[in-house]
Design goal:
Radius of gyration: 18 Å
Distance between the termini: 26 Å
Structural class: mainly alpha
Mean pLDDT: 90
Largest sheet: none
Shape: globular
Length: 288
């Protein structure tokens, strides 16, 4: 019998916490009329989680044969969830995600359609190609812009770019979780992370909370990437990938501080604490 825990495993439930801040950062950065209304941001947070979770389910559906060889413990190859049921979960969550975004506003809904298309394209077409990390980065950038959709959206381009650049680095390293990465990939990812932290300070007036957020982001993401640069084995790539997934929340905190919102910064610190606790539980946070 399929358990709730199996579905949570399928969609990498704890990792979905890392997308909660995307729409919030986008809304705070855009500052258009009503952009940061609680109900609107809440609907977009639901949309982000649903679309992220849909991407995880579709990923496992598309990779079922590969996972049977490389990750037999995953829900489909282990027999805990059928391939057809995983696809159904992906379809339903996609519909819920797009519907929630339209509930927040037509502009956000249209961006969610593009985001959903990019997620499905990544899972079914681009993931094994050289364009894979860029497409995944576009997904996270669109998630931020979904929150910014409407008047003032241009102010969210830098934060969206920072999240996207971080995602390129994490995804590039994640491709070595089975067979190992390369030292060049580790060095490039580390350089990208430094650039991301610097971009987070732009426009933030070097506010202490912004600087602290950038420092915490680098403390979370750099050690794993530098370890890959020194010894690009599969274990190092897995560790760096997990650390990179978790590090996006400190990055979001820095970007929220950059936008001048102490309450949002504090809320994201709470999300980070919860994520660390869940990270010690059963589920892994892989994205591949």
């Amino acid at each position: 019998m399929t358990r709730v825990a199996d579905y949570l495993d399928l969609v990498r439930a704890p990792a979905s916490l890392t997308v909660l801040g995307d729409a919030l950062v986008g809304a705070l950065s855009a500052r258009g009329p009503g952009a940061d209304r609680p109900l609107r941001v809440g609907a977009l947070a639901v949309s982000s989680v649903c679309l992220y979770s849909a991407g995880m389910a579709v990923n496992d559906w598309a990779d079922a044969d590969l996972d049977a060889r490389e990750r037999p413990e995953r829900p489909i190859p282990s027999g805990r969830i059928s391939r057809g049921r995983a696809l159904a979960v992906g379809v339903c969550l996609t519909a819920l995600g797009v519907g929630s975004a339209f509930a927040a506003g037509r502009a956000s809904g249209l961006v969610s359609v593009a985001l959903a298309g990019a997620l499905w394209a990544y899972d079914t077409v681009f993931k094994p190609t050289a364009a894979g990390p860029v497409v995944m980065a576009a997904c996270r950038g669109l998630d931020v812009m979904m929150g910014a959709a409407g008047p003032g959206w241009r102010s969210a381009v830098v934060p969206a770019g920072a999240v996207a650049a971080h995602t390129v680095a994490v995804t590039a390293i994640s491709r070595g979780e089975v067979d190992g990465s390369t030292a060049t990939t580790g060095r490039a990812a580390a350089a990208a992370s430094v650039a991301v932290a610097a971009s987070g300070l732009l426009g933030g007036g070097n506010h202490p909370a912004t600087v602290l957020g950038g420092a915490r982001y680098l403390a979370a993401v750099l050690p794993g990437q530098l370890a890959v640069a020194r010894r690009p084995g599969a274990a190092e790539a897995r560790d760096a990938t997990r650390a990179g997934i978790r590090a996006v929340v400190p990055l979001q905190s820095a970007l929220a501080a950059r936008a001048g919102s102490p309450p949002a910064t504090a809320a994201l610190l709470g999300v980070e604490t919860l994520g660390r606790w869940l990270g010690r539980r059963r589920w892994r946070g892989d994205i591949t």
